[in-house]
Specification:
Structural class: alpha+beta
Radius of gyration: 51 Å
Distance between the termini: 53 Å
Strand order of the largest sheet: 2-1-4-3
Order of helices and strands: HEEHEEHHHEHEH
Helix content: 55-70%
Number of strands: 6
Number of helices: 7
Length: 342
């Protein structure tokens, strides 16, 4: 059977690996995209600066198509169209895609996202770039690999830390549950003096407090039952001793077999029967099956019945009892047998 600490650790591992993979995927894609944008913006700035310098030196775009301007970026910078201040194509490098040609006027819609070429604060031209972006013109760069390795190492380190923390947390969460389990097993063997330490105020802490309270209640109930058993044994001993004493006396000829003797034996036997019946009543009450039959009763009946049943025992001790009940008391609803037991 797998322990709860192992299940918690597995859950932490699954969550950690999933989170790490998600972090690595998002971070790798975002960082590579940002690097591509950085390289592109850097190349775009270099190209526009070259064209601005050319225009500033020559005062026009005449002969610009004959000047090499790659500066080490040829082959990776996307094809562009050089447009002058009058929005006419000066130089086009998108022949493969059938774009605008030299001398054609470029509509304003295409210039909306074009890169401006300025000289002394004045716009002297634009670089119109492909609308489908520039990703395909920036192949895998060695720095991509280094960034991905750095992210991979970071994700691996985070995963190791998460595993360590998961192991610590799983041990912390499972320890009080293991203590509860061990205490419950000892209690099942009859050792009710079990207490567990309450480590927190959360649900597990409340469970530990409830367990301690349950053990206290069970221990108190067991003590009460032991005391009740001892009391019942004591009560049973008296009528049994009387019955055995009189029976042995009559059998051995020490006592006369008079009706009075047999009446005493009978009374004690009835008392013994009543005690056994009380045991049955207690057992029924213990399991919640004690039935009460209520009926309307005059309170004076309770007093008079108590006096009648107590006359003999009081007379043996030379005690005289008188009763006085105020007339006109309202009737009460009681179970006559149970109220007399009380």
């Amino acid at each position: 059977m797998r322990s709860i600490s192992l299940k918690l650790l597995v859950a932490f591992v699954v969550v950690s690996i999933s989170s790490t993979l998600l972090f690595f995927g998002i971070a790798s894609r975002y960082s590579n995209q940002e690097l591509e944008n950085f390289l592109f913006n850097q190349d775009l700035s270099q190209v526009t600066d070259q064209f601005a310098q050319y225009y500033q030196e020559h005062g026009s775009w005449e002969g610009v198509q004959d000047q090499p301007r790659d500066g080490g970026i040829e082959g990776r910078f996307p094809p562009y169209i050089l447009v002058d201040a009058e929005k006419k194509v000066v130089q086009g490098r998108d022949n493969d895609q059938g774009g605008n040609r030299k001398g054609e006027v470029v509509p304003d819609s295409e210039l909306a996202n074009a890169a401006e070429i300025t000289v002394d604060g004045q716009i002297v031209g634009w670089l119109v770039l492909p609308q489908d972006g520039h990703k395909e013109y920036y192949p895998e760069n060695p720095i991509y690999t280094r960034i991905n390795l750095m992210l991979l190492y970071t994700a691996g380190g985070a995963l190791v830390v998460a595993l360590i923390l998961g192991w610590v947390f799983s041990r912390t969460l499972s320890r009080p549950l293991k203590e509860l389990s061990a205490a419950a097993q000892r209690a099942a063997t009859g050792d009710l003096a079990q207490k567990v330490e309450v480590h927190s105020k959360d649900e597990i802490g409340l469970l530990a407090e409830s367990f301690n309270q349950m053990m206290e209640d069970l221990e108190r109930q067991m003590a009460s039952r032991r005391q009740m058993t001892a009391d019942i044994a004591h009560d049973l001993r008296t009528p049994i001793s009387v019955i055995l004493g009189h029976a042995d006396g009559v059998s051995e000829g020490v006592l006369d077999p008079s009706p009075e003797r047999f009446e005493i034996i009978r009374d004690e036997a009835v008392r013994l029967e009543r005690l056994v019946q009380d045991l049955r009543v207690l057992s029924m009450a213990d399991v919640g099956e004690l039935r009460l039959d209520f009926e309307r009763t005059d309170p004076s009946w309770v007093v008079e019945e108590l006096a009648r049943t107590s006359t003999t025992s009081l007379a043996e001790k030379s005690i005289q009892m008188t009763t006085r009940v105020q007339p006109g008391l309202p009737e009460i609803e009681v179970d006559k047998d149970r109220i007399m037991q009380v």
